[in-house]
Design a protein that fits this description.
The chain is an alpha/beta fold and about 150 residues long. Helices cover about 55% and strands about 10% of the residues. It has a 5-stranded parallel sheet, with helices on both faces. β4, α4 and β5 form a beta-alpha-beta unit.
Length: about 150
């Protein structure tokens, strides 16, 4: 009886160890993927900059006047800076942390808020961007682009 209890306890400990190890490896893979994705976006943006191009050029070429930015992480801040340097001031920002964000006097909303009309929204989050693009398009009727799409233009 004691032997079967010890065997069961050993099995539980080993299973827990293996599950923990797998979870740790999965987190590490996700972290590596995120870093690689960020590096890819930085590389595309730098290449565009070195060629003398900008996302603002594309937006101006489409005659967009009213732009919104989804996501206020690093890329959202970089994008707003680039747009403002070219004379385009985003009308508003969409972010799930809207109540925590204050940036250059630009209004910040969540996706569930009533959003003002704009010509286009640029999704700056990198992970899950295609799904997020579709979600944003469901809430507001305008052109929606991912940051990567605009960097590849």
């Amino acid at each position: 009886m004691q032997k079967s209890i010890l065997v069961a306890m050993a099995a539980v400990v080993c299973t827990g160890y293996l599950c923990g190890k797998y979870a740790g490896e999965k987190k590490e893979r996700q972290k590596r993927f995120k870093i690689q994705t960020y590096a890819s976006v930085y590389k595309m943006w730098l290449g565009k900059f070195q060629r003398g191009e900008s996302i603002a050029d594309f937006l101006l070429g489409k005659s967009y006047e009213n732009i919104a930015v989804y996501g206020m992480g690093k890329f959202g801040v970089f994008l707003i800076n680039e747009l403002e340097n070219r004379g385009i001031k985003p009308v508003f920002i969409i972010d799930q942390r809207a109540d925590e964000i204050f940036y250059r006097g630009i209004d910040v909303f969540t996706l569930s808020d009533t959003l003002p009309d704009v010509d286009a929204i640029i999704v700056t989050t990198v992970n899950g961007q295609q799904e997020l693009k579709e979600k944003v398009a469901h809430y507001i009727k305008c052109d929606v682009y991912t940051l990567e799409e605009l960097l590849q233009e």
